[in-house]
């Protein structure tokens, strides 16, 4: 799905705050010494390298997975200056390794890896690939949202119901969806337990054109027919320019779930 928007995704999706990554890493006891290169970390669903680069620059031996050739090629491009990243074009359920990892990371991706009929087997695989004292760290960037008055104006123009969200739902709605799609299957078997959640809220000003570029990377918009997409994005951009000029205020939420492996 994301092959044709890999560059847009890299350029316009928000980054994970460095302080959030550092605070999450502090919760993983196996990553605490200064000898970073000896630590083996697995990243599930690397996309265009949004999280891979921060992990690589911290010196870890990173094994990264993604099933999409476009995304993985973009990740290889942005990680070209690092020799400590190993790339695999494979979905998580088809990945095999004799290595147990010190920490497993997934950046806004585990809902893809854990879904489907084999979710119980996927959870067991996560458990087997992680060292007993290791942590599963899930980072999330929920879609940036414009102020309510702007969203209401767009909803009126599109004939959409309210409340209207560019990202499809509120931050609370996204969290509820992740509870159902990720945390329920992850915790129901007793193999993992939540240790801590860390949050970071940000306010960012973007040009309407940059916001539209971000908006085009969301999965419901990728699949729009070209004629429909041209009218849809054109209408929204016109409203954003009229309401905000060249500076659109947006708010976003990033979070990190620190998850421990049980030894049952």
TrEMBL record:
Keywords noted in UniProt: Methyltransferase, Transferase
Keyword Methyltransferase appears in the UniProt entry: yes
Pfam families, per the entry: Methyltransf_25 (PF13649)
Molecular-function GO terms, alphabetical: methyltransferase activity
Domain of life the protein comes from: Eukaryota
InterPro entries with a match to the protein in the record: Diverse_substrate_MTase (IPR051052), Methyltransf_25 (IPR041698), SAM-dependent_MTases_sf (IPR029063)
Example GO BP: methylation
CDD domains per UniProt: AdoMet_MTases
Ranges for domain Methyltransferase: 41-134
Protein name: Methyltransferase domain-containing protein
Source organism of this protein record: Cylindrotheca closterium
